[in-house]
Amino acid sequence: KNNPIIVILSLIFILFIIFEFMSLNLFNFRLDFIHDGVYLTPAQNYLSTKNLWISSHTAHGGSDIFYPIFTWKILGKETIGATRTFIYFLILLVKFLSIALSYQLTKISNLNRDSKILLFVILTSILVSMSHYSAPMNYSYFSYRDIYIILFLILFIELFIYSRFRLFITILISLVATISILFHVDIGFYINFLLIFYIFYLLVIKKYSEILLIFSSLIIFWFIAIHLIGFDEFKAFLDHMKTIIFSMDLMHGLKYPEPFFSIGDNPHGARATRGLLLQLTAGLFVLNYIFSDKNKIASSKKILFIFLFLLSFVMYKNALGRSDATHIRMSTDLPILINCFFILNYFLAFVEKKSKIKKFLNQKVFFSISAVIVILFYILNQNNYRIENIINFNNNFNHFIKLKDNDFIDQKTIKFLTYYKRISEKDDCIQIFTYDLAIPYLLKKPSCTKYFSSWLASPIAKQEDYIRQLKKIQPKYILYESAGTNFELTYNVEVPEVYVRLGLVNSYIVSNYKKHDEFDGYIILEKK
Q: Using an 8 Å Cβ cutoff, are 255 and 321 in contact?
């Protein structure tokens, strides 16, 4: 209402984002057995058993189950294409939310009205460009997993601005904190970690009513969640959450490259160094703001930037755990956001002090410059816009959704699946002991145990539970080795085989199973 130019510019951004989405080339027909399987097999398990965490010990959280099931119900197709389509829509939502986040950050700046327009345009251009349409692997600065972080920040910033909807915003933040940990354990942990510190802050400033509102909201939302999923599922979720929080970094950890000195020797060394430098500069900007007497940004918002940097600092745990280039890049989103915000503010504050420039840059000129920046930004990304795809958008998506499973796999895999389907025709489930997580889905049967992603059972307690489930189910066949996934060729990283990771489970299997057959690189064991 107060700034129609911002509204016009936002609509321009939205229009270009929609065009970019409709221009997508949906020609990636290669199945990623790991990253596609993370979603496909839990969804297959649910369809077969109607269980969530009880039937699937997932890699990320409930999203691995809920996302594909929701998509399949809406689209009416239980396909690989339908599952990936939902990821594309999530990325589209990330881009829309990036506009809202940019607007919230613009509001907390103390620049004048004209400068804020330029700040909004440049910051939005940066944030929107930080997410890319790639599936099932999506390691952009802002990936679809960051939806809950972005939404939380949009709401959280509002708490540090005078708002008539403060109580309602507080309730929404509690809702995001609840849903996020159910869907993505690590993201939810970071959000709830920050929420706990915010509660301590409210305690210091004696806003007890808001603390009571947060606690009561969380209790109500968790009560509703437990009622919806059931208490047994909730216990299975807690067990899963414990594994993710305390063991995930040990299960798939990679040593963090030595800053500076590993550049040239380690392919991830340069990005690892940049990641730490971005954290350092973000921290210095925040410290400078906190202790500076200069009124660069509204002083009442200082505490907000402490929280933002705290979140940035804690979320870098992902990079320290899985220290390859892709995970390090994903963990530098908030440092980039903080750095860009302060650099742009300082620059525009400097421009405002120059009387000649200030006189020239009136509102109309600012609007014109902003519009040109937006258009140039998208013209430079012209490869993302294809008129033919936009015109045929509906047909392209329908075709992609209806593609059969065999369209995503090679003939070698098709022959193996045909063979495996024949020998396991009388079996009710499929048990794999490899990284080819999509196999149960491709055979249209549930996994015999919830450990379809066997390496997640690396902790001793989980291996013992794995063995108990194997003893109970007594699967006739186990896929012991496979040729489907080559980490070194595909992901440029060496990963030990599952039977090396899970020593206890492997001892049980080799003691109770014998080699049934070897089929073109696949080894299948049979119960003795």
A: no
162 Cβ neighbours under 8 A, 6+ residues apart:
none
Q: Which residues are CB-contacts of 125 (< 8 A; sequence separation ≥ 6)?
A: 373, 374, 377
- Alpha helical stretches, state H, 230-298: 231-252, 269-291
Q: pLDDT exceeding 90 applies to what percent of the chain?
A: 55
Could you identify the residue written with the tokens 């492997």? 506
Q: How many CB atoms lie within 10 A of CB 38?
A: 22
Nearest by Cα to 36 from 20, 62, 59: 59
Rounded CA-CA distance 201/462 in Å is 38
The pLDDT score that the predictor gives to residue 374 is: 73
Output the pLDDT for position 489.
46
Do strands 431-432 and 477-481 pair parallel, antiparallel, or not at all (unpaired)? parallel
- Closest to 79 (Cα-Cα) out of 65, 69, 92, 90: 69
At 341, list the tokens: 């915000």
Q: What is residue 293's predicted lDDT score, i.e. its pLDDT?
A: 61
Q: Which of 236, 254, 269, 273 is nearest to 323 (CA)?
A: 254
Amino acid symbol at 313: F
Residue type, 61: G
321-338 pLDDT, tens digit per residue, is: 888 888 888 889 999 999
